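Customer escalation, tier 2.

The customer says the design service returned an amino acid string that "doesn't look like it belongs to this structure." They asked us to rerun it and document both sides in this ticket. The original structure tokens are below, unchanged.
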């Protein structure tokens, strides 16, 4: 079928006036010879947006390869069919959504399809963080949950994340089974034939109140509360929730980054609404300097991630700040949870995260485990006590939220910083002490965003076919292809290079963005009085390895 024929067929079934208008304009411009319109139309119908373990995620717009009401309704109907097969006696689904364009529309379309399929549907009352939805699944005893969000993706994107009754995201084979149900719905005919209902339940504030109470209760009643916090919601939905949780825990409300506090789906002050991206934290750091803050906390737009910045005085300035790497925050949270008396359990991380966690956990008598990348794997570990991945995701209360939670993580970081301040210590003091105890672990990510995703598979294929024998002047001692299964983990697309001098590189495609990511780790033994020297050595090694890795991606 030609692109124009597919587009005209799509117009017959699309219930959304906005995407119909967009498609009609695209068709007209294509017929008039507009090359850009021809390319956009071709990409819009270049296959079907695929449902996987991350659910659905992609640009908004008309067509089978975009996020829109047709694609979402079919996905919801496929999920409903899967749930009715799994729970023939009936089930319930809770649905949440963030403040992105069309998130509320997609959420209510999902609720209508669920009701039409005989499933009890409950919708959260307003745009709320992803961890509130993950909490609601277990709190309400639902068979599944749906969160409409594209997390920290660009403004044009939206997504559809699915959880099952355990409260954690889907993993194989559930993703394949749901995808097959979606395909069956798609092949069966027009979406107008799908039964829908309008008697879903719009929840009140009970779930949110319970989440706030549970999260605030993580803090010890006697813990110090004297801390000056700057907070940015990054134009997302975390602001009001953070304020409520902080207040309920006995802390003063954070100083907001006002330009980024109110939800705005266009994310006007940042190129990408992700605290990891260059420049995304600039307004927060300026606010911290202006208010003599002790710490900066940032959430991404759906508040499942948490970034941290701390004062970093230098010889030239007493007002410098440093945004911590996700691995540093993970190590700090693990140290803090152990220090405050974490009950026995497993400390876990994804394979791309810094292995300092293993040293911290095992030295304190806790079990350690690594998983594939993604909280869908971390959350399933039996007796999980703490889990993290370097992309700013942390799970500090797995009994309540089996997913990364940027709100509860933020609260524990604030508690830790207040405790250190009361003791006359700093966050950097703790990082230095961890280096002296376990060695200096330094990590860095080298990544490239691409327009043509085939470039990613080309790079992976080249590295498999011509494995380097040395990187940055360091010999490759071992090479592991994660597609073959490594360390007892399921196969996945990734490569690991173990280098002489206790260094490591892991290369993998992003699961949610058109990026290829390379994770570098260097470990340097530290002797008393030689920490600065060790930092210099680590920096030199990272620079050399990073230069080689960047050449792979050119």
């Amino acid at each position: 079928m030609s692109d124009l024929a597919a587009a005209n067929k799509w117009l017959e079934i699309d219930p959304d006036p906005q995407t119909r208008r967009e498609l009609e304009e695209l068709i007209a411009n294509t017929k008039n010879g507009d090359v850009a319109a021809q390319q956009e139309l071709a990409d819009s119908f270049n296959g079907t947006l695929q449902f996987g373990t991350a659910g659905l995620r992609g640009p908004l717009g008309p067509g089978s390869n975009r996020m829109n009401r047709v694609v979402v309704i079919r996905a919801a109907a496929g999920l409903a069919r899967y749930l009715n097969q799994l729970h023939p006696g009936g089930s319930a689904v809770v649905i949440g959504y963030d403040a992105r364009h069309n998130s509320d529309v997609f959420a209510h379309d999902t609720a209508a399809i669920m009701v039409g399929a005989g499933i009890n549907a409950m919708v959260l009352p307003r745009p709320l963080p992803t961890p509130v939805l993950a909490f609601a699944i277990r709190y309400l005893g639902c068979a599944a949950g749906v969160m409409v969000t594209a997390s920290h993706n660009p403004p044009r994107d939206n997504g559809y994340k699915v959880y099952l009754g355990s409260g954690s995201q889907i993993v194989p084979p559930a993703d394949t089974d749901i995808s097959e149900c979606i395909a069956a719905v798609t092949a069966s005919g027009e979406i107008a034939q799908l039964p829908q209902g309008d008697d879903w339940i719009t929840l009140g504030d009970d779930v949110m109140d319970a989440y706030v109470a549970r999260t605030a209760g993580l803090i010890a009643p006697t813990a110090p509360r004297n801390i000056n916090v700057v907070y940015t919601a990054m134009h997302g939905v975390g602001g009001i929730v953070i304020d409520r949780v902080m207040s309920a825990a006995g802390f003063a409300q954070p100083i907001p980054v006002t330009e980024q506090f109110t939800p705005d789906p266009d994310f006007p002050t940042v190129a990408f609404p992700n605290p990891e991206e260059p420049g995304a934290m600039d307004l927060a750091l300026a606010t911290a300097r202006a208010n003599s803050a002790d710490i900066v906390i940032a959430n991404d737009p759906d508040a499942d991630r948490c970034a941290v910045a701390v004062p970093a005085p230098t010889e030239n300035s007493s007002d410098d700040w440093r945004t911590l790497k996700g691995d540093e925050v993970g190590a700090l949270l693990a140290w803090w949870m152990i220090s405050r008396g974490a009950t026995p359990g497993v400390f876990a991380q994804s394979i791309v995260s810094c292995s300092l966690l293993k040293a911290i956990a095992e030295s304190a008598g806790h079990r350690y485990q690594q998983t594939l990348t993604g909280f869908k794997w971390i959350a399933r570990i039996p007796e999980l006590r703490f889990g993290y991945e370097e992309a700013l995701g942390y799970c500090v209360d797995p009994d309540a939220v089996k997913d990364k939670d940027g709100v509860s993580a933020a609260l524990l970081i604030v508690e830790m910083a207040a405790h250190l301040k009361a003791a006359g210590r700093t966050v950097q003091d703790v990082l230095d002490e961890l280096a002296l105890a376990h060695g200096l672990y330094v990590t860095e990510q080298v990544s490239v965003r691409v327009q043509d995703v085939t470039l990613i598979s080309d790079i992976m294929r080249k590295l498999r076919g011509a494995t380097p024998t040395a990187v940055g002047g360091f010999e490759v001692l071992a090479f592991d292809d994660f597609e073959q299964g490594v360390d007892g983990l399921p196969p996945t697309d990734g490569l690991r290079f173990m280098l002489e001098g206790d260094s490591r590189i892991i290369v993998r495609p992003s699961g949610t963005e058109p990026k290829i990511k390379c994770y570098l780790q260097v470990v340097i033994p530290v002797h008393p009085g030689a920490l600065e020297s060790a930092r210099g050595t680590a920096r030199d090694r990272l620079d050399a390895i990073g230069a080689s890795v960047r050449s792979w991606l050119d």
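Tier 2 assessment: The sequence is consistent with the input. Residues 47-204 form a domain with the Alpha-D-Glucose-1,6-Bisphosphate; Chain A, domain 3 fold (CATH 3.40.120.10). The first strand starts at residue 56 and ends at 59. Sent an explanation to the customer and offered a walkthrough call.
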